[in-house]
Amino acid sequence: MNTNTQATQELAAAPRTWQRSARAIFAGSVGNAVEWFDWSVYTAFAIYFSKQFFPADNDTASLLATFAVFAVGFGMRPLGGWAIGAFSDRFGRRSALTITIVMMAGSSLLISFLPTYRTIGVLAPIVMTVLRMLQGLSVGGEYGAATTFLAESAPAGRRGFHGSFLFFSIAAGLLLASALAWGMTHFMSRAALEDYGWRIPFFIGGCGSLLGFWMRRNVPETVAFEKLRRKGRIEPRSLLWTWNHHRGAVLRLVGISVLGAFSFYLFISFMPIYAIRHAGAIPGDAFAASTASIAIFMIAQPFFGALSDRIGRRPQLIAFAAAYLVFLYPVVTSIGPGFQSMLLVECFGLLTYGFYSAIAPSIMAELFSTDVRGVGIGAAYNLVVALLGGTTPYLMTWLQSIHREGWFLAYVCAGAAVSLITYWRMPETRGIELE
């Protein structure tokens, strides 16, 4: 083939490659955004429905019970990451993504119609717990499946940019949830929110998940998985096999994820409630600051992802961990009741976290081979998140009730030290081919 003919074919193939990549990003991102909207409205509206399902003598006890169910849902994430990750390694990333969004749609719609403790007694918290466990399975499976799908759909030199849309879409879902909470707290009374208003976001999320399912069902499978299937190398891999053959990758993923698990749920899920209860902030202002900071975080994701494709993954990770280790405690404890103070604190937490989140999918995908990428990421990452991230709201609420919230910040700083050591010692993986 002469040079001119080859060049012509490459130019003709470029639009098709771009269209396939754009379609993969859109399908993975939209469904992921809806999933995380569904997942996060529980925390955003917990302060309003906690006594409806977990009646107690005081608000703190009810909120603690509600966050205990939050932690139980997180406890299901490793199981979801393992089961759906293994499924994606056997039957494809697209099929796994379809299953996760159906699970989330059904559970969210059921929560929106769930009778309260006053109506059905102890069945109310039991059913709420079961549905939250189902959501935990869904989110656990979603992360591993979406990570592998986006990373395997990207060119090697653009994987950081493509992978950044995972947390871009997570932020979009969280932004919608936070914006809805902000709007409802401004235009509805607290009594209305506690009576029926909290049901609205669950219903919206359930309907949105059905839309996400429709969009995902026809997306093409990733090139990496199709290549593996054509070679006949698809085999069931147990967790034990993955541990024995990819132990270094699993341990490195754990070290990489420790600080990320803390920071995500500290600054996105709990900080508005912390500002309300600790600093005396007005709920509407707290949710407005959260909404604005999440929007800034979301916009920054593709830029941080593209930056890593130019300078590498390690520099951003090291900057993230070092900033938390040095500045987390003084910044968080300085939060005040004003909008500007809350916004500055949350922007510090989320923008420094963004150095990690934008490239986390790329780093994790680059650790594993295609035959175990789904289960390797899904099981290991979700175990870290369940143990550390899932307990964050509960621990912070309890420590705040005994005026010892500083202990938790010291705990997070210790996690920053662990991740910093991992980042410093890990090899650079920018631009490697996925096998």
Automatic annotation (TrEMBL):
Gene3D superfamilies: MFS general substrate transporter like domains (1.20.1250.20). Belongs to the major facilitator superfamily. Metabolite:H+ Symporter (MHS) family (TC 2.A.1.6) family. GO terms for molecular function: symporter activity. GO terms for cellular component: plasma membrane. InterPro entries: H+-coupled_symporters (IPR051084), MFS (IPR011701), MFS_dom (IPR020846), MFS_trans_sf (IPR036259), Sugar_transporter_CS (IPR005829). It comes from the Bacteria. Pfam families: MFS_1 (PF07690). Keywords: Cell membrane, Membrane, Symport, Transmembrane, Transmembrane helix, Transport. The lineage of its organism: Bacteria, Pseudomonadati, Pseudomonadota, Betaproteobacteria, Burkholderiales. Its main location: membrane. This is Major facilitator superfamily (MFS)metabolite/H+ symporter. The chain crosses the membrane at residues 24-49, 61-84, 96-114, 120-140, 161-184, 196-215, 249-274, 286-305, 317-336, 342-363, 375-396, 408-426. Residues 24-430 form the Major facilitator superfamily (MFS) profile domain. It is a multi-pass membrane protein. The keyword Membrane applies. It is found in: Cell membrane. PANTHER family: ALPHA-KETOGLUTARATE PERMEASE (PTHR43528:SF1).
